[in-house]
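Same chain as my last thread, 351 residues:
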Amino acid sequence: MLKVGNIEILAKRSLAGQILDDSLLPINNNPAFIKSSFCLSVTIVQIDGVTPVAFGTITKQGNKQAYCMIDEADSQYDGLVVTVEEMPSQDDGQIILKIKTTAKPKDFSGERLFTQAFDSRDGERSLQQTILDTLVEKSIGMQECVNSTDPGLNKNITIDISASDDKTLNARLAKIRDDCGFIVTDRYQFQCVQIDRHSLIALEEKPDEDVTFERLNKDNKMALIDDYLTEIYRLVNKEMFAALCDTNGVDVILAMQGDIPCGAVLTFKHRILACYAEKEWIAGCLLAQAAHMMPNIFVTLFIQKDSSELVKRIVKGAASIQPVCRMHTVKNIPNIKWSQVFCPNLGLSIF
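reply #2:
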């Protein structure tokens, strides 16, 4: 029986854990966002077979793109490499690996370049690299390549990293770059903004078209929002978004033009998880509608820096701003209609 408390601690270090808190993992039978039907998870335990020291999750976004929500490891293993073996699991979507050996990495710096590049590491990898390699191999597949941290030229993994200060952020970025191969910085800059909800309410404009706003009826409107999200990104993971909408505490407001969605905002407690809209004024109205329902004075949301006049107004009224770094293993994600994404769903999805 795994010590689930350790998994909770690891998960809450991630951006996803900070966002959804106790609603992220299905621990103690609580209704939660992450489900094995759309999300693969890997847990690495100590030699005792019950104490988790690393945890990661990934969701597919098509055959060649995946989003890594969590890749966290206990700091006591920093600077060490391990070998692992797979343990039995009752759920195909939950992989459990047990540490066999622990060691300091071999020093190849004095060897010839060929030896540095191609000498066998005997399966030794850092915990985070082991997590990522396993997630990739079991989800979108690991192509044949020299370096196991490179999932292949056509396989791209994306992760979002945040921290409360620059020193911690840079340390985390260095670790996922050097250990896990996240070497491509996203072309866009993202930020986490905390803002007084009254500043969001002030964004509301008088509709200039026949647009109405209503809370999502999950029984008969999920298919409509699926179609709308597909317009923004063709390879959207519909099952993931459905699970998010079903997560306890998550509310969805739709902007409707007749029977057709033209925008949506997702909220959770004091957070706006995402805001999508065909036009800027619709996004402003959605954010205002969401702010009206917020119990807290301050609201937290993510934005793409300088992406629209609306976003610039949000930044101008912000109480605090914190950078969020999006990294990829191979390339930036193509074909997302960012012009319709006013608050990206960072930490949980690629848009």
